[in-house]
Each structure stands twice: as C-alpha cells, then as structure tokens.
Design goal:
This protein is mainly alpha-helical and about 400 residues long. It has three domains: about 5-60; about 70-165; about 190-365, Orthogonal Bundle (hpI Integrase, Chain A), CATH 1.10.443. About 50% of the residues lie in helices and about 10% in strands. The strands form three sheets. A three-stranded antiparallel beta sheet has the order 1-2-3, with helices on one face. Strands 4-5-8 form a three-stranded antiparallel beta sheet. It has a two-stranded antiparallel ribbon with strand order 6-7. The chain starts with a strand and ends with a helix.
C-alpha cells in the first residue's frame, strides 16, 4: 500500500489566488483513487499530511465518507440487510431502535462510540435516566433487564455489521455486561391440578376454552401455535396435529396468523393423547378444513391476548392455580407429564419444538429419572459375565 501524501500549492503560477491555498493529496487505499482536502494555512495542511501518513502507515486510515457515518446509518443498513424476520419481529426491532437507540446514539459517529459510553448508557437504561423517544408508550422509568437485552440486540448487530463492512475496526459494545435477567418460575401441574383447571375453564367459560387448556397442558403447544390451528391441521385418524404457523402481530400491532412458527424446529407433528380425541372431534364438527379450530364470536381465530386477559385470568383464579402460571407455562406441565410417562429427551424435544436437545435438558434435566445406579449395576453384571466366560474358556483349555 502506498503511503505517499503530498501538499500542492493551488495558487502556484497564478498572479492572485482565491479560496484555500494548500491542498493535501493522497491515494485512497481501498479504491486507489486520488483524494484531497484543502486548507487556508500551510501549517494546518502539514499537520493533516503528517496525520494521514501515520494513519496510512499504521492501517488506521478511514475514508472521509466512512468516518462521517453515524450509528443511525449502521442501524439502517442492518435493518435493510434483514431478510428472515416476520412483520412482528421487524416491528419490534424498529420500536426498540426508535424508542431507545436513536435518541441516544442516532447522530453519534461510529468511530466516536466508546465502550465506557455504552456501559454508562446501559446503566442509564436500568436506572430510567437514558434518553428515549418523547411519545414512547409505557412507563418512563427504569427498563427491565429483559427489555434492556432486547434494546441491545439491534444496537450490537448494527455495530457488528459496521465491523464486517470495515467502517470501524472493532465493536465497542462487544462483551458489554448487562443486568441479570431473573427467569420466571417453572411451574409444573400434576394430572389432578391440570384436570381441575380444565374443568374450571369448562364451567366458568366454554368447552372450547377447556380444550385449549387441555391441548397446551397435555401436548405442549405454545399459545400462538394453538390459537393458529385450523380444522385441517388436526388428523384424528393418525392422532396428530400439524404445527405449521403461529399467531402473531403485524407492523401495526394487529393480530395476524404468521406464515411460520417460532423456529424451523417448531414445524412439527405432535401426538394427540387418546383422551382428547372425542373433545377434538366435537370441536371440529363438520366445518371446512380451512376454518379456524378455535374461534371468537365473529368466527375468526381467537386472540391470544384477549383470551388470556379474560378467560384465562378468571379460570386460574377460580381454580386456585399457583401464582405465576401462564398459558405458555402449560408447556412445562406437558413436558413433565410426558417425562413421567417415560418420554426420553428427543421425544420431548420434538413434542415441544425445541431447536436442540440442549434447550430441553437445560429446562427439564432434573425431571428425567436418575438411572445411574441401574447403568452401573448393569456394567457390573456385564463384567461378571465376561470374567466367568473367560474363566470357563481357560478351564477348558
């Protein structure tokens, strides 16, 4: 790479001159094109020449158009690069960016973002003193750890893209420490508790609501997956339910049926316990396969949010369910009941639609029976058999 930099006198040979006289010229390392910057005073031009020579020689040089890029530019480039997120995810990213990221960093040049400043910002988010969009919905106070983590997703990703594109040399937010997220309690209902909740839902609400609880509590469907089911997704002959979509929201926060479940692993067929067959047959009736399995008063898909705020809250209180139990939490009950019935890790993973067995084990490892004593006992028996066989063989010889 050439590090040649020189100063040209723009007035040389002219009787009179106008504008800045001294022009610093250099070769752009990436494009090999000639670049220049003019100065009024020669000492200023010489100082810039020295800085350029040093930055080119140490590979710290940044093109002027790149040096002027802001965090807002990087965030927009990252958003434009996203191809996989659905409308709900894209809307969530955009809200986090507009509500919290841009108010603090939008006009900040990428090369001016420092690790200590990012650390201070995270603390301010936690304390509720960080800048935010004036009309942002919700409380104006401190953000929950999970919300802070969500805000950092597009922020970190934009800086990561900037590194990949060569706009900055390192990501100043890499490895930043965030507040610890306190996980919700994992609540497992036993068979009697689950049946009590189902019966209470049937009494306080409808048989459709009771079936929703039964499906989530026995099969482990996510609420969005259960509410997105159509009649044609249920095969009573094969005793399978096909999960191919989920209930979500669009960019305007309006409920829609998404084209894909949460992850690729979420696309699956789940088994129907025999005791749910009759209730499902009644729910399906003679309706067309393309109609929603669970409907609201207008015959459309039941809304997850409305159902939780109305039917779920009323029934769980009446059934005296453990505090903190959520519709999504019924997945834990389904997993625990399956494990108690002899299901192995891979079966539970496929039933719940986890991406890998590690996710399943991280949550339910303690529920799987401890078979260490059985395994070691079998190892001892196998050893004894091998030794007896060897002794018998030696005796014959």
């Amino acid at each position: 790479m050439s590090t040649r930099v020189w100063i040209a006198d723009r007035w040389k040979g002219a009787k009179t001159g106008t504008g800045n006289r001294w022009r610093v010229v250099w070769i752009e390392p990436e494009t090999r094109k000639e670049r220049s910057k003019s100065f009024k005073k020669k000492p200023d031009a010489e100082a810039h020449k020295t800085w350029l020579e040093n930055s080119l020689r140490s590979h710290d040089y940044t093109a002027p158009e790149v040096a002027s890029m802001t965090l807002a530019d990087a965030v927009q480039a990252w958003m434009d690069s996203k191809k996989k997120p659905g409308e709900a995810s894209r809307s969530t990213y955009q809200n986090r960016i507009e509500n919290y990221v841009l108010p603090r960093w939008g006009s900040t040049r990428l090369n001016a973002i420092k690790r200590t400043d990012v650390d201070t910002w995270v603390s301010a988010l936690q304390e509720g003193t960080a800048p935010r969009r004036a009309d942002v919905r919700g409380a104006q106070g401190p953000l929950r750890p999970a919300t802070i983590k969500g805000v950092l997703v597009p922020f970190n990703a934009a800086l990561g893209l900037a590194v990949q594109e060569g706009w900055i040399r390192r990501n100043p937010s890499s490895g930043i420490e965030t507040p610890r997220i306190e996980t919700d309690p994992v609540i497992f209902l036993d068979h009697l508790q689950l049946e009590r909740l189902i019966d209470t839902m049937r009494t306080t609400e409808t048989s459709q609501d009771a079936l929703l609880v039964a499906i989530m509590g026995n099969i482990g469907l996510r609420p969005g997956e259960a509410f997105a089911l159509d009649v044609g997704d249920v095969d009573l002959v094969r005793r399978r339910i096909s999960i191919t979509k989920t209930f979500t929201v669009n960019g305007e926060k309006k409920p829609i049926i998404g084209k894909m479940p949460k992850t690729h692993a979420s696309i699956r067929d789940v088994p129907i316990p025999p005791h749910l067959i009759d209730d499902l047959r009644t729910q399906m009736g003679k309706r067309a396969k393309t109609t929603p399995l669970f409907v609201n008063r207008r015959g459309k898909h039941q809304s997850t949010a409305n159902w939780r705020n109305r039917q779920w809250k009323k029934a769980t209180e009446a059934a005296k369910m453990p505090t903190g139990l959520t519709p999504k939490g019924l997945r834990h009950t389904a997993a625990s009941l399956a494990i108690a019935s002899g299901a192995d890790v891979l079966m539970v993973q496929r039933m719940l639609g986890h991406s890998d067995a590690k996710e399943t084990l991280n949550t339910y490892a303690k529920l799987f029976p401890d078979r260490m004593d059985d395994v070691t006992a079998k190892m001892t028996k196998a050893r004894d058999r091998a030794l007896r066989k060897a002794a018998k063989s030696q005796g014959k010889s």
